[in-house]
Design goal:
The complex is a heterodimer of chains A (369) and B (155).
Chain A lengths: L1 H16 L6 H8 L3 E6 L7 E4 L1 H7 L3 H4 L14 H12 L4 E8 L5 E12 L5 E10 L1 H63 L3 H24 L7 E3 H16 L4 E7 L3 E3 L3 H19 L6 E10 L2 E8 L3 H5 L5 H13 L2 E6 L4 E8 L5
Parallel strand pairs in A: 7-9
Antiparallel strand pairs in A: 1-2, 1-5, 3-4, 4-5, 6-8, 9-10, 10-12, 11-12
Helix pairs in contact in A: 6-7, 7-8, 7-9, 8-9, 9-11
Chain B lengths: L7 E5 L3 H13 L3 E6 L2 H11 L3 E4 L9 H12 L2 E6 L14 E4 L4 H17 L10 E3 L1 H6 L10
Parallel strand pairs in B: 1-2, 1-3, 3-4, 4-5
Antiparallel strand pairs in B: 5-6
Helix pairs in contact in B: 1-4, 2-3
The chains are: A alpha+beta (369), B alpha/beta (155).
């Protein structure tokens, strides 16, 4: 140990001898407030051969306590082995290196050392010294660590809150499914009840009334089948509903001789308006199927759903016998259409289409749709 | 014309009014209603003894949401084919528990009849006569078995 100290001391003196008091660069290094050291690359384990006063002030050691020793005496329990390893590799490769290490003063107090190490070569290119500088970055590092800690706390709070919301959402979704399930089952029950009653009824007028109610329930049921099929439970796809209801109504009527032309644009309405609109549509379609083509007269029904300026337009046109001949009665169906028009602030105009009847529903578009 | 045996259909439904109405629909399309179960035990016992060609199975039965188990038992042990009839189509397992498909509640009289006629053909011929009617959704495995994946997609 003593020998190493003396060897380093001599090497240091040799270095100092070639840079006397009149050398401005040497004077700058000795006097600067930045801690600086030189180690001897030609001795085993690279001992320190020079430290300036700033280094001694930073670390709390005396000069004779550090000359002849490798810098690792500054390391301690909290020093990152990875960071030290990275530094050592760079030194062995003869490269410039920088690192931030937790180091310890003589009194044991820790400080964050932003270290820069650079090789010094002789004229042949061989590395003879390493030059090192140290900056105490403890206050910046503490702030950084505090920020990381604060960020972790915030993240934990956000995670906890997100979890709570997730649980609440899952409960709400489960409840929604339960309610949806009950609504559908009850609609099914109502529909089956009406069908059973219809089967037992012989009076044609009563049968017709029951059939009408069954059709209306079926229109509402078709809405509910469709309502939860889309991802957006607030919106209702009119075109998909129309297509469902038409195929069911024509099929159920047994009128294979009625052709339906569908011209449907995708149009969404708020879910709350779906049932009244469906009832209106079902009423008008049912009218055409029942009254436009009497006595086996074949025919065609054209249905258009599209957007117009500020309105959705639903058009149902048949080429049947027309209003006068069919003697369309101002019955319950028409009352329903008129009332629902009022509710939806829609207009419904029926006109003679020569031949047949054309009905146009115009539903105002409000707000976001 | 050659007389063919009607398709034997078992109803597994705990709402008795729905079951009675379904029974009418089954007979109206020329199938035969062979029995009616309201719980999973009943359903599996009837399916084992009656060996129906088709079982209409609600998911929620008298003893809970056991319709899925019933469908699986019918597919694995009874040699028949189950068809779900439920308001909760989205809760069915991906493999439909071996069932051939599902009719969503609320269904229409016409929708059920169309589905029964369609399945009658599928089960007799082993091949679908076309795309399934509105209201009937086939299980992927059965759609494949009945050749639907080879058909051009329309609609």
């Amino acid at each position: 140990m003593r020998e190493e100290y003396l060897a380093s001391l001599r090497a240091g003196e040799a270095l100092a001898a070639s840079h006397g008091p009149e050398d401005p660069f040497a004077a700058a290094i000795r006097a600067t407030r930045m801690s600086m050291i030189v180690t001897d690359a030609r001795q085993a384990d690279h001992p320190i051969i020079f430290v300036n006063d700033a280094f001694l002030a930073l670390t709390g050691y005396r000069r004779d306590e550090v000359i002849g020793r490798n810098c690792r005496f500054l390391q301690g329990a909290g020093t990152s082995p990875d960071e030290v390893g990275r530094l050592r590799s760079a030194i062995e490769a003869g490269e410039d290196a920088s690192a931030e290490l937790l180091n310890y003063r003589k009194d044991g107090s820790p400080f964050w050392n932003a270290l820069f190490v650079s090789p010094v070569r002789d004229q042949s290119g061989a590395i003879i010294y390493f030059f090192g500088s140290q900056v105490d970055v403890t206050s910046r590092k503490s702030t950084e660590l505090a920020l990381v800690e604060r960020r972790d706390d915030l993240q934990a709070a956000v995670d906890a809150r997100t979890h709570d919301l997730q649980v609440a959402l899952e409960q709400k979704t489960a409840l929604l499914h339960e309610v949806d399930h009950r609504v559908k089952n009850n609609l099914q029950l109502i529909s089956s009840l009406l069908q059973l009653q219809t089967r037992r009824t012989r009076d044609p007028a009563v049968r017709s009334t029951l059939r009408g109610m069954l059709e209306r329930i079926n229109a509402v049921a078709t809405v509910h089948r469709r309502l939860f099929q889309s991802d957006d439970i607030e919106r209702f796809d009119v075109a998909a509903f129309v297509s469902d209801l038409v195929s069911d109504a024509i099929g159920a009527s047994g009128r294979a001789d009625i052709t339906v032309d569908l011209n449907l644009e995708r149009v969404d309405i708020p879910a709350a308006k779906a049932a009244p609109l469906a009832l209106m549509f079902s009423e008008l379609l049912g009218n055409s199927i029942r009254h436009a083509f009497p006595d086996g007269r074949p025919g065609r029904i054209a249905i258009i759903v599209k957007r117009e300026d500020g309105y959705f337009r639903i058009e149902i046109a048949d080429d049947g016998v027309g209003v006068k001949t069919s003697g369309i009665r101002p019955g319950f169906g028409q009352t329903i259409v008129a009332l629902l028009c009022e509710q939806l602030r829609a207009t419904c105009e029926t006109s003679d289409a020569h031949p047949g009847v054309k009905t146009v529903i115009r539903l105002p578009v409000n707000g976001k749709h | 014309m050659e007389k063919i045996d009607p398709l034997n259909v078992l109803i597994v439904e705990d709402e008795v009014l729905l079951a009675v109405e379904l029974s009418y629909l089954i007979e109206e399309v020329g199938c035969r209603d062979v029995g009616h179960a309201m719980s999973s035990d009943e359903a599996i016992a009837l399916a084992s003894s009656l060996r129906p060609d088709l079982a209409l199975v609600d998911v929620h039965l008298r003893d809970g949401p056991t319709g899925v188990d019933v469908a699986r038992a019918i597919a694995n042990d009874c040699g028949g084919v189950a068809l779900f009839m439920t308001a909760n189509v989205k809760r069915l397992p991906d493999d439909f528990a071996g069932a051939c498909g599902v009719i969503g509640k609320p269904y229409s009289e016409h929708g059920v009849k169309m589905a029964l006629r369609y399945l009658d053909t599928c089960l007799r011929v082993g091949h679908a006569p076309g795309l399934p009617p509105a209201g009937l959704q086939l299980a992927p495995a059965w759609a494949d078995r009945w050749g639907l994946n080879d058909m051009p997609r329309t609609a």
